[in-house]
Every structure is written in C-alpha cells, then in structure tokens.
Amino acid sequence: YGFYTGFDSDNSSGDFSEANHKVAEMLDLDPHQSNRSGEHNGETEIQENGIKKHRTSLPAPMFSRSDFSVWSILKKCIGLELSKITMPIVFNEPLSFLQRITEYMEHIYLINKACSHADPLERMQAVAAFAVSAVASQWERTGKPFNPLLGETYELTREDLGFRFISEQVSHHPPISAFYSEGLNKDFVFHGSIYPKLKFWGKSIEAEPRGTITLELLKHNEAYTWTNPTCCVHNVIIGKLWLEQYGTVEIVNHSTGDKCVLNFKPCGLFGKELHRVEGYIQDKNRKKLCVIYGKWTECLWCTDPTTYETYKKNEKRGGEQKKLKPSEDVIKSENDEADDMPEVQDTVQFIPGSKLLWRINCRPPNSSQMYNFTSFAVSLNELEKGMEAILAPTDCRLRPDIRNMENGNMDVASKEKERLEEKQRAARKERAKDEVEWHTRWFHQGTNPYTGTSDWLYSGGYFDRNFSDCPDIY
C-alpha cells in the first residue's frame, strides 16, 4: 500500500464464469488478464464470454517529476509528524489510497484456488501466495496515492473476476482505511483496516503497517489473518527512488492452527537479498510442512523441507546452482501450470522439483508512462457511461482532483485538491463548534473475531444503494 498514506493533511496549506475460472486455473493467470483485447472506446463493451472490456491506458501520460525535489519539501519537515505534511500534486499518482487497497484483488484467482483445494496445506500455500501478490503491484510505484478524504468510499464489482469490494475512509487523524470484499459465489469474505505508521529517516521514508487483514474461506469454515510487511522508499533526497518491503509476515489459519511464516528480507549489502521472500508452513505442532521461496516482485515457489535443506547445504559447499530461465526451467519444472505463464525474466534460483505458486502479471507496454500501473490499476478510476447515477456520491471516481490529474490537467487538479482539503477543514471546524461527532457510514469499530484485536467491521447495506445520508465531501 506504499509509504505515502497520511502525507497529505488538512492541517497544512454478477456470477463468476465457471469456464473462465477453469481457463484461469489452467494458465495460473488472472482471468481478466487472459481475456483482455482491444481498446476501450468510452462505451461499455461486452465480449462473447460476457466480460466487459476495461480500458488499457490512461487518458493522458504521466506528468514529469524531473523538475521537482522531494527533499525541497521534506527538509522543512524534519522532526514533524509526517501525516501533517502536504506534498505537491506532482508527487501523486491519479488514484486514491482506497483504490490502491483494491489492488489486493488483482490476483483473486489465488483465493479461488484456495477455495477449490481439499487439502489444508494447499489452501495455505494459495493464501500465502495471495498475501505476497497483494504487495506486488507496488513494485516501481513511487507515486503517492491521494490521501482519502474523511467519508470517501470506493466500490468495485467485477463479475468477470467473481467479487465485489467496498472501502471507506473511517478516520482522518490517524488516517484509517477500512475495506470489505466478498465472492459473488458466496465462497469467501476478505476484510480489514489499514493505518500505517510513518517514519522519516532522512534518506528514506518507512511505513510500518498497522491493522489486521482477514480472509475467510466460507466453504471450508476457515479464517486466515495476517499483517503486511513494512514498506520503505529510499533515495528521497537524491538519486532514483526505489522501494523495498521487509519484515516477518505471519499468516495464521485459526481453524487448523497451521501457520505460514514469511520473511521479507531487507536488501542487505550489495543488494544480494533485494526483494527476497523466504519462509515455511508449519502445523499446530510446529512441524514444517513445506518451504516457500521467491521474490515479491517476481514469483513464489514451494518445495518440501528436506529438498530445501539439501539444496542449501550444497549451495554452501559451492555447488553449481541453476538460475531460473522461463524458456527452460519453468516449462521443465514439475509444475504443469507453469507452461503458459507470461514470460517474465526471473532472477530467483530455482530448486528442482519446486511447485510454482504465483508469478507477477506482465505490465502493459506503456506502463512507465502510466505511473508504472498494472493493467488492473489502469482500470480502477474508469468512469463508464451511466456509472455516476449508480455510485455513492463519495466514490473516488467522482473526486475532481484525481480526475483532472488523470486527464493531465495538473493546475486544475492542484487547485481542486486544495479546495477539497479546505472544505474538509471547514466541515471539521463546524462539527467541533456544534459538538457533533463524525459517524462512519459503512463500517463500525469493533473486535476482530479471530485475533481479538481492535478492527473496523463492515456494517452491511452498501449494495442496497441507499445513499441519501452520505456526506457532501466533493
């Protein structure tokens, strides 16, 4: 979700197609990815298999950041709480943080896989791959998502992918975003709340994640919980910005007691460990069932612990190691699903006999001109004909600053951003004067039923589409 949320402040100036699911399972691809063709022409188009085509590019190319320095802003803010800093719009990307959270769903086929497996170990493997894939869209995304306004919402229904999603900004200070997603086949529920703690270290900005993420597989009566790794952006003063994730992610299956421990490794000297993920799945008696390894920017594999240990011993003795080449090793691997994976050049050392759990989707060819968005991200702020009449008036797609930035109108976007922040400040002062408390609309504060910790829970009712009492935030 990036280190950026909380920067901007108002204190400163249908059913999932079974056939499509099967094809996606065979290819191990995002079903949407495998069915994309043609350009979006502004109209809602339906393909033969009933999937809507989504746009494949943004209306205007990315604005150049080369004339601006992050340091020129941050040097005035040393010692200040980062959530009180307003950054110029040039450092943004044209998405709200609520839309950025929705990118967790890009690899939803992994949830579908978890639902379909009878073996709890295979379910945990798919859930672990989903947890890693959820941070993969951040790779090379150094633009800052817009900080959501209090009461802002985002909804996404994707019948082709078999889910619907709703999120709401439930708190402004500290910034907290709550989300809830469910399978259209009533096979899963995915929910959580996110409020990263930001730290500025001089040369880097770090976001320590707070908040629990919960995935419930309803058919198996299972619930998994975890917290995302720490995210850090380097070279904020000088040089090229780059991003890394590090820390330990523990995924707990609250029904079986199984646990997956994933270590996102810090870069280390000479970048040897850059983007590496290594871990294992253990049962309730702490017996290791399998080892998981790979990179969150590339792919994830699993193998049995004995094979892994043997490989590591040989590696220490200086045995020759094969590097993975998609054209050779992936296809020759024992994993049948790897055959039709997109050709992404991997740098992960492949251990013979490993099973491929996940590989990152290829980005569109024009991605570097589109804030390094994935194809999924490109479609998130799309406003199709007739949608305004259906959406809640608080939906991100209706935010004029994001819309203008997407269209390349940077000056208008900057003015609109300022206007919206001023409007939010004025509304807060008015509430303080009248001693009126802010009431969230779609989520309420409660306790996570599995971890016992404080959480924001979905109150229900959003898709009944009664938006009469939504706040006027734009």
Automatic annotation (TrEMBL):
Pfam families: Oxysterol_BP (PF01237)
GO biological process: one example: lipid transport
GO molecular function annotation: cholesterol binding
Residue ranges of coiled coil: 403-437
Source species, domain of life: Eukaryota
Lineage: Eukaryota, Metazoa, Chordata, Craniata, Vertebrata
Keyword Coiled coil in annotation: yes
SUPFAM superfamilies the UniProt entry points to: Oxysterol-binding protein-like
Annotated keywords: Coiled coil, Lipid transport, Lipid-binding, Transport
The protein, known as: Oxysterol-binding protein
GO cellular component, one term: plasma membrane
Keyword Oxidoreductase belongs to the record: no
Family label: Belongs to the OSBP family.
Entries under PROSITE patterns matching the protein: OSBP
